[in-house]
Amino acid sequence: MTSQAADGPDTVAATRRSKITPEREREFFDAVLEQIRECGYDSVTMEGVAASTRCSKSTLYRQWKTKPQFVAAALRASRRVRFAGIDTGSLAEDLRQAARAAGDWSVKDTRLMQALGHAVTADQELAQALREALILPEVAALREMLGRGVERGEVPADHPALEYVPAMLFGVLRVRPVLCGQYADSGYLVRFVEATVLPALGLTEDPGHRSRDD
Amino acid sequence: MTSQAADGPDTVAATRRSKITPEREREFFDAVLEQIRECGYDSVTMEGVAASTRCSKSTLYRQWKTKPQFVAAALRASRRVRFAGIDTGSLAEDLRQAARAAGDWSVKDTRLMQALGHAVTADQELAQALREALILPEVAALREMLGRGVERGEVPADHPALEYVPAMLFGVLRVRPVLCGQYADSGYLVRFVEATVLPALGLTEDPGHRSRDD
DNA sequence: GTGTACCGATACGCATGAGTACCGGTACAC
DNA sequence: GTGTACCGGTACTCATGCGTATCGGTACAC
């Protein structure tokens, strides 16, 4: 209970009272997220993280009060928008690119979400961190992409399928392992987008011509 | 192993050496699945199941060797096909009915799948039981439904979207909670089917007329 | 050089849960 | 009635993990 050591909950490097560099902190975060992907949230132990990063359990507990707070901090710190930068000028091509991009990180993020899926129902902070780190940024980027398509007149603004595009994409990412036993790769996702998302949005250039090449 | 006493791994009442009636067995299975939905697989304890069913831990361990075997047996015993019996003569209406039906059990089954999602990566028997109990029967029923539509000529047999329909439906079931914070209800699922699945299959009667009533 | 404060290591208390062992009660077979 | 075998209860062993406490080393401030 040191008084002024009340550092923010997620990062500690801001208060330079700690000798843990931001790079070192990243190692902790990467390690715990990786172990969660591997073994599930419940099976991850602070001891295991400490061992794999060759730090001491004390060090972790000095910076973060509890395991869920530690994990939540790790999630917040790895917030990234994978869909950022996709803007080809065509909504259909944007969506294909998004599918391709999703295939690249889908394994890691899908496993993480799967592993955290039930832990978040027990810890509110964890749930919020997961949403803000992995879900909302991607959904927002996707909606932006769709918004540009609407502005260009490629899709009517009130098209009923618009609001379901994120659910379609993230949904197929999430069920593919349980349906087929393997994670969705870029090829599968692109085919999915072309077979379902684009037609649902009315984006197939010539509906009579079926352009499958597999 | 033992020749005729080789009771199936999932039910024990077949060998009437046990005094546990099938109804009693169902109570055990219902209890453990319910607790898994509530607390997650790891947090479920044999002690908790025994307490909630007012039986003894010994009783459970006499019938099932380990916790994963017990859970796998419970899964196999609750195998049911929810989509069975849907056959309206129209694929579009079949799919709407399926969506409506899915809304009814989606909460229970989605929570169960979510809760088991990571445990199955560690236990092979559990994974197989989950697939055979909750996944494959529904997918098969769905594919049958689609097959009938193809036979009736409503959709060409090689329509590229056909193979993705199960992924779309189960996908949206699975991501809805994490996207919106609530489980998918029947209304949402029907709207989803009408906005995405039917158009992707080319099943919108008059493409120009947008039939939304919300 | 001296001191402060953080790091790593280790050991510990405490709780919890898997799976086992034992024991008395009882229902059913015969 | 007698015996068998299963049920429920409880106590036990063993392992594991959270979170805390303690201690020596050391880097950096001044």
Question: What is shown here, in short?
Answer:
Two copies of one chain form a homodimer. Chain A is mainly α and 214 residues long.
Number of helices of chain A: 8
Summarize the amount of helix of chain A as a percent range.
Answer: 55-70%
Instruction: Identify the CATH architecture of the largest domain in chain A.
Output: Orthogonal Bundle
Largest binding interface between chains: A-B, 46 and 46 residues
Which descriptor suits the 3D outline of chain A? elongated
Radius of gyration of chain A, in angstroms, nearest whole number: 21 Å
What is CATH's topology name of the largest domain in chain A? Tetracycline Repressor, domain 2
Number of individual domains of chain A: 2
Low-confidence stretches of chain A: 1-16, 207-214
Quote the distance from N terminus to C terminus of chain A.
64 Å
Oligomerization? homodimer
Strand content of chain A: under 5%
Q: Can you count the beta strands of chain A?
A: 0
The biggest sheet of chain A, with number of strands, parallel, antiparallel or mixed sense and barrel status, is:
none
Mean pLDDT of chain A: 87
**Class from secondary-structure proportions of chain A:** mainly alpha
What's the SSE pattern of chain A?
A: HHHHHHHH
CATH class membership of the largest domain in chain A: Mainly Alpha
Organism (chains A, B): Streptomyces bungoensis
Protein name (chains A, B): TetR family transcriptional regulator
Pfam families (chains A, B): TetR_C_11, TetR_N
Keywords (chains A, B): DNA-binding, Transcription, Transcription regulation
